[in-house]
Specification:
473 residues; 25 helices; elongated
């Protein structure tokens, strides 16, 4: 968090950049107000990079075009009906929007667009006070009518007006609260949390695509587990991701946590540490897989005769549930399929930890994971959240050994590109077959042979294939 003086100095420096100074001067010369607004002002105080440049003005869209068009390298008016004109000036891309004073009907989140007359009125309609600040240009005067600076200093998310009005106008703002918690680490204030708890069901009027987009931003933030807690505590998760609050009812038999919900969030935190330590950028597939890896447990929970709790096949069911939920939230097929596959595979390592695997078993582990192998490494390691230090050390050493064996085998052969010793054309030539199901069966036989015994060479593979083919009769 920057000091107020440092943030203002940073904003003043930004205001002096040629493109912004030019626009501010032209607006001023034309007798119009002009201000940098929202995220860039907030990020100046947070010490974060300032990227998207959003401006607001009392000028109408036509007047904005008159100001921008003569000096812009390019301009566009795709958001004109909402009062927004975009432009590119040199390296800077900007959006300029006429002051807004929208009205909502409570049935949809689409406002009846109405242009406002003052900057303060425009700021009052924004989602949170930390986003309701502006810098008047060219004078460089900070405008903060709702106490956004104080909320930045106290790391609080608060709505400029009554939260029930704000969330009633646009229920997606409740999702944004969770997202901002993840991205900037702020706490949702009690009044806003209470309003969200009472109004969570209204998220139903928001499209699945918009909900999924907010969830994506939340998961890619610096603190996704904290954002998930806001979704659960507010009741929003019951409507957009109900598999997560359902985990609070279960006891994880592998770890001394109060429930699987806590285990899943701890695992997510651990995955972020490993993701960074291993040099990876934030990855949506990995993070979703860790969050959702145990969602099959509630439906598979069984109390055994000795009182132990088991969750047999929760990996298989969890993969199906994740597929269904992520598709409903309109995630693309690559994300859906990859997350489901990681969930399906996430218990495989515990078979290794329980006993020594053969080289063929290690090859299968690599083959089954395919391009997801690194994420499976992180998920498997993150899944160990036991407070039993001896058990945690034993499992960590076992996985170290598994990764070392994979590395050794990779030096001996390219595991990621394992193929049978014979290809389809060779199989058909040897067995006198035409393309069809039998060629596929023969290919799979040779693949299993390759995984079990390693590289055999053409002659031995041919002989084994002929032997296998003859035994089928």
């Amino acid at each position: 968090m920057e000091s107020v003086a440092a943030a203002l100095a940073r904003l003043q420096e930004l205001a002096r950049t040629p493109a912004i100074a030019l626009l501010a001067g032209r607006c001023d010369d034309a007798g119009h107000e002009f201000a940098l607004v929202g995220g860039p002002v907030r990020d100046a105080f947070l010490g974060r990079p300032i990227t998207d440049l959003d401006f607001t003005t009392d000028a109408t869209p036509d007047q904005i075009l008159g100001i921008v068009a003569p000096v812009a390298d390019a301009h566009w008016d795709i958001g004109r009906e909402f009062g927004t004109i975009g432009a590119r000036l040199g390296d800077e891309t900007v959006e300029i929007t006429t002051y807004r004073s929208d009205a909502y009907d409570g049935e949809t989140r689409k406002p009846v667009v109405a242009f406002g007359s003052t900057l303060e009125e425009d700021l009052a309609r924004r989602d949170f006070t930390v986003n309701a600040m502006a810098l008047r240009l060219p004078a460089c005067v900070l405008v903060d009518p709702s106490g956004g600076v104080e909320d930045l200093l106290s790391q609080t998310l608060r709505t400029p007006g009554a939260p029930e009005v704000s969330f009633g106008d646009d229920p997606l703002r409740m999702m944004r609260a969770a997202r901002f918690t993840s991205q900037i680490g702020f706490r949702l204030d009690d009044a806003a949390l209470d309003a969200a708890q009472r109004m969570a069901a209204s998220i139903a009027i928001v499209s699945a695509e918009r909900v999924g987009a907010e969830l994506t931003k939340l998961m890619l933030g610096a603190r996704p587990s904290e954002g998930i807690r806001v979704l659960v505590d507010s009741g929003l998760a019951d409507h957009v991701l109900p598999e997560i609050p359902a985990l609070r009812l279960e006891i994880d038999e592998h770890a001394h946590h109060k429930d699987v919900y806590e285990h899943s969030l701890i695992a997510l935190d651990r995955a972020l540490v490993l993701e960074k330590e291993r040099g990876h950028a934030p990855d949506l597939v990995l993070r979703l897989a860790v969050l959702l890896h145990d969602i099959g447990k509630p439906a598979t929970r069984v109390i055994e005769p000795d009182g132990a709790v088991s969750f047999h096949h929760h990996d298989v069911l969890g993969a199906k549930l994740a597929t269904k939920r992520l598709r409903e939230l309109r995630f693309d097929n690559q994300v859906v399929n990859s997350v489901a596959e990681l969930i399906r595979l996430h218990l495989r390592f515990f078979g290794y930890a329980g006993g020594q695997w053969t080289d063929s078993a290690v090859r299968r582990y690599v083959r089954d994971a395919g391009p997801l192998l690194e994420w499976l490494h992180i998920l498997s390691r993150s899944d160990v959240t036991t407070r039993n230090a001896r058990k945690a050390t034993t499992l960590a050493r076992a996985y170290d050994e598994l990764e070392a064996r994979i590395a050794t085998l990779e030096e001996e052969e390219e595991l990621a590109a394992i193929r049978p010793d014979l290809d389809g054309e060779q199989i058909m030539a040897i067995l006198g077959l035409k393309p069809g199901r039998e060629v596929g069966e023969a290919y799979r036989f040779l693949m299993e042979l390759r995984l079990d015994e390693g590289e055999l060479g053409y002659d031995i593979a041919r002989d084994r294939l002929v032997e296998w083919w003859g035994s089928r009769a």
